[in-house]
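User: Okay, second chain of the day. Same drill as before: sequence in, structure tokens out.
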Amino acid sequence: MIVVVDERELVTQGYNSLFGREGVATAGFGPGEFGEWVDSAADDDLKAVSAFLLGQCSEVDMPAKRIRERSNAPVIALAEQQSLEDTLRLFEAGVDDVVRKPVHVREILARITAISRRVAQQQPSFTQIGPMRIFADGRDPEIDGEPLPLPRRERRILEYLASNASRRVTKSQIFNAIYGIFDEEVEENVVESHISKLRKKLRARLGFDPIDSKRYLGYRLVE
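Assistant: Same drill. Structure tokens below.
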């Protein structure tokens, strides 16, 4: 999920539509309500955010500082008119990139991927669980060195399970990470359908079900 912060509701709604066409969930905030949310949001809700976009705000560097106190997700500022002074102030506040509008959402997604890739280079680029090698950069997982092509939603669920391999995650946590914590148009039970399909594909390749589930406790990957 991408969080968009802008004083203009028309802008946040526009990005919601544009990113939605690319299959990416967004949540839009005005600067004031965003400050309240980022200060009080649960850690799991913040982990569901893949990037923050900062648009027109009276003090755009303040949201950036608040984000950096709680999240390492990429932060991109969208500038109407770019000046050296403003750009330097934003970088000092913790912004990862400053982009002058207009800009296509695909370019924004590419920049988010590039920033995430640089961060990932400082960390393991994959998670190894038994014969499964699960990447965090959009590549299909590998089983015994052979790629296992997966639809985007199933791949992202597997990536999320791998990133939380040391603990169980609930259906709600998976839903929030994949669809966005404010998506009211999709039923949470869709997660069960995706996991069922994912299980069948993994079981066919592995010979066993690597997704352990316990009622009320959630899911986790096992070797």
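The two ends are 29 Å apart (CA to CA).

User: Thanks, on to the next one.
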